[in-house]
Amino acid sequence: MITVRAPATSANLGSGFDVFGVALDRPADVIRVERADRTTIEITGVGSQYIPTDPEKNTVGAVVDALNAPARIEIDKGVRPASGLGSSAASAAGAAVALNELYDRGLSRKELVPIAAEGEAVVSGAAHADNVAPSILGGFTIATEQGVESVDADIPLVACLPEIAVSTRDAREVVPETASMEQLVKTVGNAATLAVGMCQSNPELVGQGMADPLVTPARAKLITGYDAVSTAAQQAGAIGVTVSGSGPSMLAVCHDDRRRDVATAMLDAFADVGVEARAYQTRVSQGATLF
After folding, report:
1. Would you say 247 is a known binding-site residue?
2. Tens digit of pLDDT for each residue in 94-144?
3. What region holds the GHMP kinase N-terminal domain (predicted)?
């Protein structure tokens, strides 16, 4: 049996819509695989009751097919489905790494990214790599049509997950179809600033670069209390705040000594609008790990 810990991720990071992503050191899924004549899936953990075990409807099924690697698969969910923290991507990424090892396919981590992305397509309808890439490779990733690049980074973060639902489909439907030249210039400048900040492990630059005049304002409207939570986080020491993935999680960048204050402020602000939430004091971290 092969066991892999696959981390949660945060995609977009504000200015890097459908391109940027980071691996988080918590939460994470644990995936166990064992050779079998046919594929079966057993799921436990947070939100497991909402996830299909039929291989044709689960993200790992497409990974099994791509690698021609039937297996008995156990998934212990630590990443809540529909959280904006790459739940389906963690399962697909972990399965890709585990099955590649189990069957000795010899594929590199980068070669596994498009395979795991096909798994993502089962639930999202499109093979986006912005979540599976960091879950497999770790660090900060840039996923484009030309491929995926990654860099190690050490940035303190707080991911705050409210107990509300935002569907990926709804989150994509509110994304504006056009942008002004002013919005485009701001977004490109901020994305470049964020990328430099990641390369330098500089929270100040990363936080500044998360600002996004286009996608984030549209998606923020789907999250009850977003503006109040963002303001509270910044008053507590957050340098930048944005929507994590398609939401409803919110992601804040801060310095190490302010993570607890920022997490508490975000939880209190959600509570003030009647929303229960959970905060993860986390950071940019490594990708899927065999153990």
Report:
1. no
2. 999 999 999 999 999 999 999 999 888 777 667 789 999 999 999 999 999
3. 60-139
Selecting among 9, 39, 59, 168, the annotated active-site residue is 168
Residue 168 designated active-site: yes
Report the CATH number of the 2-151+286-290 domain: 3.30.230.10
Contact 287, 151 (CB under 8 A): no
Topology of 156-283 in CATH? Answer: Alpha-Beta Plaits (3.30.70)
Q: Given pLDDT bands bounded at 50, 70 and 90, which one contains residue 90?
A: very high
pLDDT tens, position by position, 259-287: 999 999 999 999 999 999 999 999 999 99
Give yes or no for a contact between 211 and 36, defined as CB atoms under 8 angstroms apart. Answer: no
* 130 Cα distance to chain centroid: 8
Q: Is residue 106 part of an annotated ligand binding site?
A: no
Contacts of 57 (CB under 8 A, 6+ apart): 122
> Which candidate in 9, 59, 120, 193 is catalytic?
120
The domain segmentation of the chain, as residue ranges, is 2-151+286-290, 156-283
Dihedral sign of CA atoms 20, 25, 28, 33 in order = positive
81 is in an annotated binding site: yes
Q: Is 34 marked active-site?
A: no
CB 16 within 8 Å of CB 249? no
Mean pLDDT, to the nearest integer, of 230-236?
98
Q: CA-based angle 103:285:247, to the nearest 5?
A: 95
Helix or strand (DSSP H, E) at 205 = helix 203-209
Amino acid sitting at position 283: R
